[in-house]
Amino acid sequence: MIGERLCHAMNEQIKNELESYYIYLSMTGWLHARNLDGMAHWMRCQAHEEMIHAMKFFDHIHDRGGKVVLLNLNQLKTDWASPLEIWEDTLRHEQFISSKINDLTTIAREEKDYTSEPMLAWFSKEQMEEEATAGKMLEQIRMIESNQTGILLLDRELGARVFPAGSPLDPLAYNVTA
Ligand code: FEO
Q1: Cα separation of 92 and 177, whole Å?
Q2: Residues in CB range of 56: below 8 A, 6 or more apart
Q3: pLDDT tens-digit series, residues 119-166
């Protein structure tokens, strides 16, 4: 059974992951409004991944006999000055999430919760990849920031990201006119 302290921290992490979902969905809207549809699509895929992360914690708490408690989400940023600021915020946010995964791992070790450790190790690896991706995007945007052609080419490239099959965020997965 999951310990009370780790259970509480994982419920906090469900909130953090759902806030990530909200942030990236908010960025999706901002980018769509500026006709950067490729970047918007990339962010929408990212939002989908964050919902999955939240549900991994949700299921883990439940499977370990803990109580899932959904906490209030904070009011988040809804406007950005530029795509550059979007990617700066993305990297900063992923660094914040990584620090939270590290905190969870510390608690799991202190509580000798060897069942939670492999799941948290998966998240550590995921965070390493997410920080690397966000950092690379940020550097690329910095390189081309004042070059509109470069922005449009990157936008087209990011539009190629593929949704996982059956994603509820994939516009092709549902018919809004039905
Ligand atoms: Fe679930 Fe991007 O951290």
Answers
A1: 38
A2: 119, 123
A3: 999 999 999 999 999 999 999 999 998 899 999 999 999 999 988 777
CATH assignment at residue 54: 1.20.1260.10
CB 19 within 8 A of CB 73: yes
CA distances to 28, 35, 67, 165, 168 from 32, rounded to whole Å, are 6, 5, 38, 22, 18
Tell me, yes or no, whether 125 lies in a domain. Answer: yes
Ligand 1 neighbours, Cβ below 6 Å, are: 17, 20, 50, 53, 94, 97, 130
- For 47, the domain range is 4-162
Question: Which two tokens mark 76?
Answer: 């988040």
146 domain residue, yes or no: yes
pTM, two decimal places: 0.93
DSSP state, residue 102:
H
Query: How far apart are the two ends of the chain, measured CA to CA in Å?
Result: 45
CA 4 to ligand 1 centroid distance, Å: 23
- 173 within some domain: no
Q: How many whole angstroms separate alpha carbon 122 and alpha carbon 142?
A: 30
Q: How many CB atoms lie within 10 A of CB 81?
A: 8
Residue nearest to atom 1 of ligand 1 (CA): 50
